[in-house]
Write a structure and sequence with these properties.
484 residues; two-stranded antiparallel sheet; mainly alpha; globular
Length: 484
Amino acid sequence: MDRKSIKNIIKFLSLIGIFVNIFFLIPLITGIIYEENIKGFIYYELISISLFSIILFLLKNHKIKMHSKDAILSVNIVWIMLGILGAIPLMLLTNINFYDAFFESISGFTTTGATIYNNISDLPKTILILRSTMHWIGGMGIIVLSTGLLSIINPTGTLTLFKSESTGITIEKITPKLKHTALKLWGVYILLTILDLILLKIEGMNLFDAINHAFATISTGGFSTKNESLGYWVNNYYILWTTTIFMILSGINFIAHIKILKGDFSGYKSEEVKWYIYLIIILSLGVSLIHFISSNDSLFFAITNGFFTISSILTTTGFATVDYSTWGQAAISLIIIAMLIGGNAGSTAGGIKVIRYIVMFKNLKAQIKKILSPYVITSIKIDNKKIPENIINNVSAFIFLYLLTVTFISLYLFANNYDALTSISAAIACVGNIGPGFGHVGPVDNFSFFSNTQKIILSIGMIIGRLEFYTFLLLFSRDFWKKF
C-alpha cells in the first residue's frame, strides 16, 4: 500500500469520525438537559473531535483521490471504526464491557436493532438517544452520507465509495453530480423523519419518545425507548398505523421518493415496489387471519398487529407490538419468510431485497423455457430494461453467500448448545439487519446471554449483511492486495 492510499484512507476516516462525533452532540446535549452524569462522555467527545481535527489539519493539503481498492478498504474499516466510536460512550455511561458495547454499537449503526440491554426503559436518556442517533446515522449508510463532503474534494473518488456502500443490484443516478444526489437523498431522509416525528407527537408520544422512534423508524433500525417496544402504545392505533406506513415508506428505494417530489410516479410503479407492496399485503393478511382465528382479539386488533409485524420484519426494522412468537407455527412460518425477503434496493432496509428475488424467479422461468425450447433466445427484463448476464450471476452468487453465511453462523451457535430456532433466527436477524428473531432472541428477549466470542461473530454478521458480502469478501482475495 503506497503513501497516497494510506493518506486517502486516514483522511476519509477522520472526516467520518468528525461527522459522527458532531451527531453525538445530540445525546450529549440531551444528557445536559436531563442533568445526567455524562462527564466521561463530554471528555470523550472533546478528545475524539480534537484527535480527528488534528489529523485533518495535518492532512489539509492532501486531496483525497479514491481508487476502487482504497474505497473498498475504507468502507470495511469505517464500520469497525463506527463500532468502536459508539462502544466507548456506551461503556462510559452504563459500565458494560467492550464486547457488549461493540455489539450494541454495531447493531445501532448497521440498523439491526438487536440489543444486549435487559431493561431498556430504565436506561439513561443519553443512552437511549445515542442508540437512536446511531441508527439514524447508519440508516442511509455512512458512506452515502459522506459523498456530499467527498464530492467537493474529488467527484470520481466519491462515486467509487458510493458504489462500494450502495445496496441493491444497480445504481440509478438521478443527477449528474453525486454530491447533489447525496444531498437529495438526505433531504428526503430528513423530511420523512420530521413528518414521522410530528405525527407521533400529535398522536400521543412525548417529544423524547417521538424523536427516538422517528430516528429508528426511518432508518429501519428498531431500537425503542421501552422494554415493550411499540407494544407500550399497543392500544393507540394511530401510532401503530403511522409507524407501519413510515416503515413501509422507508423500505422503498429512496430515489423513488425523490422522483415523486418532482411529480414523477415511475419509481412507485416499478416491479420491485409493486411486489414489495403485494408481499406485505399477502403476508400481513395471512398472519392477521391466523392470529384472529387463534385468539380472542378483535379483527381490527389482529389486522393492525399483523400489518405492523410483517411491515416491521420485512423492512428489517424490528419493532414489536406483541410477542408474535406465541401466534403459532403457521404465523411464525410467514414471519420467517418475511425475514428472508427484506426491503427494496436503495432503501434503508437490509435483507436479500425484493429485486433479487424478482431477478432469480425470472431467471428460473427463462431457464425452464430454454429447457423446453432449446433454440429460443431468452432474456430477462425488469421495468422493460434488459438485465445483463453479469447482474444475474451476481444475484445468484449473493443469495448463495447470504444463505451460506446464515448457515455458518447458525451451525456455530447450534454447536454451542443453543436450540435450532434460536440459532437460525439469530443468524438471520443479524445478517439481515432485522434485530429480533425467535426462541431466546424473540421480540421480548435480547442477545445478552451470548458469549463474548458469539457477540463478535454476530456483530461481524451484521457488518457483512450491511456491506452485502462482496465488499467484505474482497479483502480475502490475493488479487486485491496485489499492487495496492
